[in-house]
Sequence to fold (258 residues):
Amino acid sequence: MDEYSANLRKIVRSKVWVFSITALIIINTIVLGMETYPSVMSVHGKLLTIIDKTIIYIFVVELILRITAYRLNFFKDPWSIFDFFVITIALVPAQEAFSALRAARAFRALRLISIFPKLRKVIEGLVMAIPGICAIAGVMAVIICVFGLIASKLFGTLYPEWFGNLHLSVFSLFQIMTLEGWPDIVRTVMQQKPFAWIFFVVYILIATFSVLNLFIAVVVDAMQRNQAEDTEHSETKGSDLINEKLDLIIEIINNKGK
Fold:
């Protein structure tokens, strides 16, 4: 059984196998995209459905082979669990009650991330950055809340549709933080409050540029730490392999001396 599992592992790790699965994922993504066009579905709907179902069955077979090859170790790998989740969603019946899950079939395209190591490193770096991102998000929430209170006091009476209360102010400031249409809001407010630009410029400098740079710094730092850990792991693994070979050579020399 161990030999059978080892042979299966060689197959699912082979370049031909990985290339074939990657090509199927790309084809499946294209098919899912074409299914969103009613004009295409009216002409080629049956063919696209057949291709979609065939690829799903191939994915299921591939998943079974990987589970057989790795056994319980399959579920110790987060990316394997992700593949299992995505393929399981594809098998959900197409009833109306499951329409939201069926729409999640688009996640199959994300399997490309689990195949390419470089893409996996990016996602792993983002996951490592989540604690820092949450901390920065908390700081940002406090900043927006404070500026929202100030904006409600300064501009709430004149522009209640934007700053009439705290939640309207927070929403308006969030829109301004994204730099979406903020000049229109600021110029309108400046018609009644000429020095309002000072408030909005200070807010944008703090909320948009400073906090955004903090986000970028946290993500980059997490990716660098992830890369450093991988390098250290590779070096340790290489050192262990060298030591094993040296021990084997010493053992052979000692046996010949005897």
Q: What stands out?
A: DSSP finds twelve helices and no strands in the chain. The first helix runs from residue 2 to 13. Residues 130-251 form a domain with the Helix Hairpins fold (CATH 1.10.287.70). The chain has two domains: 2-115, 130-251.
